[in-house]
């Protein structure tokens, strides 16, 4: 049975950009599961599946609905134990939770703030109004003002990649010789940036850039099928 993934898009339905939806797409492909996607703008999410969620990703797997990217990964691991593991055991689940906390604390704040005007520009008109209202309330200022100065803050962001850089300089993936969900958590953030903006979050000569290129090639080039901004 084909799994349905509800994912976030802007004007171009072929360019999903949510980091959390990308985590799930990578996870489904990792498991070798057939899935179809339902692209949705922000303002239509609340109407899907009888109002089952206010956010995506959301998957329908037969009679089961699962939201939240980590919960979806856990569901896939439990429901399809005969497929390649996303975690490599219970220890991998715990480590992936750490990676998610690290990414949300270290990567997402800078990337998210930096992308605000470009995300807004990629949305349909109704979504633009929703996005500006909600994000300006969240960040406490105009989208353009929040993003301003990202060039000056870029060096500090790149310095914060030291733990990731040290690991992927020694081995192909965070998961070792092959990727695990931990890789998809971080790759989802950089794919978010790649799809929305040409801003150079990663230096070209950084081992992190090489690791991300390897992630884009995974699963028959799933990530690369969406061209960079």
UniProtKB/TrEMBL annotation:
Q: Where is the GST N-terminal domain?
A: 8-84
Name of the molecule in the record: Glutathione S-transferase family protein
One of its Pfam families is: GST_C_7
InterPro entries, per the entry: Glutathione-S-Trfase_C_sf, Glutathione_S-Trfase_N, GST_UstS-like_C, Thioredoxin-like_sf
């Amino acid at each position: 049975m084909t799994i349905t993934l509800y994912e976030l898009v802007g004007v171009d339905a072929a360019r999903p950009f949510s980091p959390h939806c990308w985590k799930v797409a990578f996870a489904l492909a990792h498991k070798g599961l057939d899935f179809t996607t339902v692209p949705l703008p922000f303002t239509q999410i609340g109407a899907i599946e009888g109002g089952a969620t206010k956010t995506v990703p959301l998957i329908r797997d037969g009679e089961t609905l699962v939201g939240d990217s980590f919960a979806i990964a856990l569901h896939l691991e439990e429901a399809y134990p005969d497929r390649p593991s996303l975690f490599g055991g219970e220890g991998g689940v715990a480590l992936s939770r750490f990676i998610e906390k690290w990414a949300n604390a270290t990567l997402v704040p800078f990337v998210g703030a930096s992308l605000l005007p470009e995300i807004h520009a990629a949305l349909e008109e109704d979504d633009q109004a929703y996005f500006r209202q909600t994000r300006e309330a969240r960040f406490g200022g105009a989208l353009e003002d929040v993003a301003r100065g990202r060039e000056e803050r870029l060096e500090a962001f790149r310095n914060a990649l030291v733990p990731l850089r040290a690991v992927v300089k020694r081995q192909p993936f965070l998961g070792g010789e092959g990727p695990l969900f931990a890789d998809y958590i971080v790759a989802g953030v950089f794919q978010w940036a790649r799809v929305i903006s040409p801003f150079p979050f990663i230096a070209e000569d950084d081992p992190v850039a090489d690791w991300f290129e390897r992630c884009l090639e995974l699963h028959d080039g799933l990530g690369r099928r969406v061209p960079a901004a």
